[in-house]
């Protein structure tokens, strides 16, 4: 697993569609599960209600942490900064990719789509740190650190 | 899973582009239907005339024009060339008067977004297509 590449991580992220995202309000962290998509530069996109606590938190403090994982594969952790997507072509591209993410599982209908059009906001997370945890090894103990930092 | 190989025009989301995209992708991935997203009333009616789709899936409230989904139903039903096209309303509006009006104008079915799942919508559209054969 130590030879895992940035491209491997990108492929993993593109094969998944849910992340746990942490924001902060003052000194209180809060975690949410979000539909996401990722572009080739490892920027994450998600949409949520414009009045949600996440958005209030992020507009006051754009720092964010997120994780995507699958048992038996890898866990990807990121820290970064979130901002609203305001460019219309970037919005269109992000929506197209979010729609792809949303249809990976035929039974999945995320809360995002219960929000009326115009009431949601698209956000972009630009990661500044990324770390991968190897979840493929199931030996009782380990000798080497299973964490790999991915250079962005 | 039966593939109808039919076209569907979706107008419902000039007020929700993301929903339109998801419907289009689900229709394609799960049923193999081709869908065309139209962004306003005029684009929709022009596409309907051009393609003669099997189903028009429309919202009632359209933000891009003074016309609405009721007008679209009327225009389709008043055209000899288009009046066989199935029309399904897919909307936030749940008042009985809206449902009655849409049905009176000629909508085949009327579904309220808060009362139906996307799976059910797909199944109901599929049934309409199968009954038409």
Distance between the termini of chain B: 16 Å
Strand adjacency order, main sheet of chain B? 2-1-3-4-5
Please give the CATH architecture of chain A. Answer: Roll
Radius of gyration of chain A: 16 Å
Q: What kind of assembly state do the chains in view correspond to?
A: heterodimer
Percentage of residues in strands of chain B: 15-25%
User: Mean pLDDT of chain A, rounded to whole units?
Assistant: 93
Structural class of chain A: alpha+beta
Instruction: Please indicate the count of domains of chain B.
Output: 1
CATH level-four homologous superfamily name of chain B: Response regulator
Helix proportion range of chain B: 40-55%
What percentage of residues of chain A falls in helices of 4 or more residues? 10-25%
| Number of DSSP E strands of chain A | 8
**Average predicted local confidence, pLDDT of chain B:** 87
Uncertain stretches of chain A: none
Spell out the blueprint of helices and strands.
The complex is a heterodimer of chains A (152) and B (133).
Chain A: H1 6-14, E1 18-25, E2 28-35, E3 37-38, E4 44-49, H2 53-60, E5 63-69, E6 74-84, H3 88-102, E7 120-134, E8 147-150
Antiparallel strand pairs in A: 1-2, 1-5, 3-4, 4-7, 5-6, 6-7, 7-8
Chain B: E1 7-10, H1 17-31, E2 34-37, H2 41-51, E3 55-58, H3 69-77, E4 86-91, H4 96-105, E5 109-112, H5 118-132
Parallel strand pairs in B: 1-2, 1-3, 3-4, 4-5
């Amino acid at each position: 697993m130590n030879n895992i590449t940035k491209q491997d991580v990108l492929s993993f992220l593109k094969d998944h569609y849910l992340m746990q995202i942490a924001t902060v309000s003052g000194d209180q962290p809060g975690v949410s599960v979000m539909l996401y998509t990722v572009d080739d530069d490892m920027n994450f996109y998600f949409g949520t209600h414009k009045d949600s606590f996440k958005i209030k938190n992020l507009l006051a403090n754009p720092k964010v942490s997120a994780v995507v994982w699958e048992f038996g594969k890898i866990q990807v952790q990121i820290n970064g900064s979130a901002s609203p997507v305001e460019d219309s072509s970037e919005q269109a591209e992000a929506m197209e990719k979010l729609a792809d993410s949303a249809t990976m599982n035929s039974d999945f209908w995320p809360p995002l789509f219960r929000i009326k059009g115009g009431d949601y906001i698209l956000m972009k997370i630009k990661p500044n740190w990324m770390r991968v945890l190897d979840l493929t090894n199931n030996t009782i103990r380990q000798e080497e650190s299973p964490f790999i930092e991915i250079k962005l | 899973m039966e593939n109808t190989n039919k076209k569907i025009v979706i107008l419902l989301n000039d007020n929700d582009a993301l929903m339109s995209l998801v419907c289009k992708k689900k229709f394609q991935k799960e049923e193999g239907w081709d869908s065309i997203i139209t962004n306003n009333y005029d684009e929709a009616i022009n596409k309907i005339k051009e393609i003669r789709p099997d189903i028009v899936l429309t919202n009632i409230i359209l933000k891009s024009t003074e016309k609405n989904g009721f007008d679209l139903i009327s225009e389709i039903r008043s055209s000899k060339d288009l009046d066989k096209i199935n029309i399904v309303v897919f909307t936030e509006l749940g008042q009985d008067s809206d449902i009655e009006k849409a049905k009176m104008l000629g909508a085949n079915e009327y579904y309220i977004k808060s009362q139906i799942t996307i799976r059910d919508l797909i199944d109901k559209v599929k049934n309409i297509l199968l009954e038409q054969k």
